[in-house]
Amino acid sequence: MNTQHKDFVKIDVIKVLPSPTGCAICLGNDTKVFVIYVGPNEGAAILMTLEGVAKSRPLTHDLIKSIFQGFNISIEYVLINDLKENTYYARLILKEENSLGKNIIEVDARPSDCIAIAKQNNAPIYIKKDIFEKVENLSHILHKEPTNEYEDEEEPPEDFNFFDDEEK
Fold first, then answer.
1. pLDDT, tens digit, for every residue of 89-116?
2. Helix 111-120, helix 60-70: angle, nearest 10
3. Which domains are assigned to the chain?
C-alpha cells in the first residue's frame, strides 16, 4: 500500500444479501465486516459483476467503463470517505493519462456506484481508517448457521401465512 493510503483500510465485497428495501452489501476484511444498504438495482449490478453474468446490452456501469476507456482513464481506487447520519459517502479516484501527462481526478459518487465500478475494473476499495474503526463489526452474522425453526413440524404455524383468507 502506498504511503498516501496509510490512513485507509483495504476492504472488499464479502457478500451481497437481500434486504427488505434492496440489498445489503457486506464489506470488510479479515478483521471486520460492515454493511452498506443499497437499492435493488444497485445491488443487482454489483452481484452481476461479482458473478460474471453476461449481459445482452450494456448497463450503466458498463457504459461508464466504456467512456473511461475511450478517454484513457483508469480507476485507481475507490475510497469510502465519510459517514454522516447513517449515510456513507465515497470518492472514485481516477487517473487520466495522455500526451500531456498524468492527471488524478476525484469524483464524488454513491458508494454503490463506486463499488460496482471498482469490481468491474478490478480496482481496490478502501475506507478511511477512522470510519472503519467506528462501524459496527457484523462478521459474526456471516458465520451464523441458518436455522429452520419449523423443521420438526409437519406444517408451518398458522401465522406463517401472511395472506388474508380472501387472498388465498
1. 999 999 998 888 899 999 999 999 999 9
2. 60
3. 3-144 (3.10.690.10)
CA angle 113, 117, 121 (to 5 degrees): 170
Of 57, 59, 90, 56, residue with least CA distance to 75: 90
The pLDDT score that the predictor gives to residue 72 is: 92
In the chain, beta strands by DSSP E: 8-19, 22-28, 33-38, 73-84, 87-98, 101-109, 125-128
Segment 50-78, tens digit of pLDDT: 999 988 898 888 899 999 999 999 999 99
* Closest alpha carbon to 111 in 86, 92, 96: 92
> Would you state the pLDDT for residue 144?
66
Does residue 57 sit in helix, strand or coil? coil
Stated as kind and residue range, the H or E segment containing 61 is helix 60-70
CB atoms closer than 10 angstroms to residue 114: 25
Q: Which of 27, 7, 71 is nearest to 63 (CA)?
A: 71
